Amino acid sequence: MRQDSLFHDLPSPSKIRQADEDRLAELKNQIRHHDYLYYVKDHPEISDGEYDRLFRELLDLELKYPDLITADSPTQRVGAPPLDELGKAPHERPMLSLDSLMDPEEVLAFDQRMKRELGTAQIDYTVEPKFDGLSVELVYDRGTFVRGATRGDGTTGEDVTRNLRTIRTLPLQLQTDTYPDHLVMRGEVYMRLSDFHALNRRMTERGDDAFANPRNAAAGSLRQLDSHITASRPLVVTCYEVMAMTGPPPSTHWDELEQLATWGLPVPTLRRRCETIDQVLAFHRETQEQRDHLPYEIDGVVVKVNRVDWQDRLGMKSRSPRWAIAFKFPPRKEITEIQDIAISVGRTGTLTPLALLRPVEVGGVTISRATLHNADEVARKDIRVGDTVRVERAGDVIPAIAERIPISGQVRPEPFLMPQHCPICGSAVAREGAYYYCTGQATCPAQLKGAIEHFASKTALNIDGLGKKTVAQLVDQELVKDLSDLYRLNQEQLLKLEGFAERSSTLLLEAIARSKASVPLERFLMGLGIRQVGQHIAKVLAREFGSLDAIMTADRDRFQNIREIGPEISESLVSYFQEQSNRRVISQLQQLGVSIMQAGSPQDQTTLPFSGKSFVFTGGLSSFSRDEAKALVERLGATVTSSVSKKTTYVVAGSEAGSKLDQAGRLGVRILNEDEFKNLVNASEKP
Ligand code: IVH
User: Does residue 19 sit in the same domain as residue 69?
Assistant: First the structure.
């Protein structure tokens, strides 16, 4: 056999390269498509594992052929080497701002002015949220994202291209081949509230300063010199305006948004086309009502004349277009005065300074107290009694002091200091980083009350009728000195309490007795009120360990090996279970009949009939209480959330369902009435 015939059937190196190049292009397209389904559509079609395999294959090919790495490759989203400074980026078109209005009368006047100038009796408007993030210019050449910049002074911004590439909702390559050769858009980069809170938690855990609000967090994350940092921050982007494009533009703003969506670009989902200005006012009203339930911050709605030829005719003023306005919501920031600083003691003993304020209305809610978080925060903002401050309410966040307003010539008292003794029980106060806590534990009535309320709450042992007032009486009368005493209460004792009679005391004792039966492990764990162990971590622990004994005997390393659990939580768990008094209470609870169920194996969770599905309940159901319905679907593997998003699988609408129903309609989420809900549950409970 001749030597060369051995190699006869092997492909040549150039053929191999060609095949790899083809595969690389195919992988990029597939990953792009799955990114779009996952990040923009919220509707993935492949598992995370399959996605990772595609991604790794692409990374391997790019490692083999570095010359084939292109700017639009999905691998470029992870960040690039840091820069010394952000470059300047002159905008292709000026980035204008919007005139702001707050009063419906002014909006009516705007409509009149538009009609007069256009000489028409009817105008279509497109209305959409005014996102509270930071505005960016986005440029696509032949469908590839090539440049992005912050607004800057409106003429020149900062080049943040590499950072924008890390944002998963921004396509690096447009879909379909109908896109224009050159496309310049404007959009908003922002952070969802849940991501913002989680980021702040991570930052403070690491000892970094938290961001004051989601907008600052978004701006701080986008304007990084190191795009790896941006890549680690949960930013999203929405496009709301075409600034320039080659080829024929769509004839209305509405069509423009629809067009952008077909190219795979994220556009405002909460938008509406209005034929009258009254419909515009209604959208503003409804959106304001929903504001606290939206997953991101908005500070108003933007009203745009829909027809593009009319926009062109109306033109612009020096800094803003004539054809659009920002119709803002009332501010959630107001100025008031600190009348006193009080200390509240939480159920885990943490001392929290609270500012007692001269009552003031902020965005429709009267505020008379605001948390000052901790001593470091008070020192950083230099807040003292008598100061004038700006209070802020952001999204679902409890009111906070945004800043102190210095008043010249004002004589101020000494800086605020945390007390050395607990204001409730007088025990010594200990310090842990920025946090101070009462060492009194269960001997501190404030901690004991908090611990009992927490133990009895719906998400823990769910003891009906054991509210704040009753708990306070039980502790103040020394009937309950630790959690186990709850199960030793008798009717005679309850009858001595204010507001208790034969029936109410029987009901409470029955509820307490009921709570003993078949307690899911995660609820019991959550009810113990271990620092840093909330619902989520309790679920993780139950899933990982299966039994309370296994958790009580685990060591630090065992806890830390779990992905969701870091050093602080491990420490908290170990020290909780090391404490003799805690072990004693747990064993007494069990002796008194609290029966803790073992958790199922990890597989059980994913094979349950509602695994991966999420429910939102709105309105009242006739056959179940809200908690029963919730427990029911959770048992079947579903999760229950309080607000509707694109990720919600079903919204169950009972009588007098509220705005969640509208939200579901808008997002195209499947709505079930009570009967449909029952059928679904019945069908899934059948073997
Ligand atoms: S349109 C020429 N639409 O509001 C009109 N702006 O004060 C360009 N903004 O800096 C803007 N959401 O960052 C438009 N749906 C939306 C918006 C929006 C937020 C911001 C934008 C601008 C500011 C105007």
Answer: yes
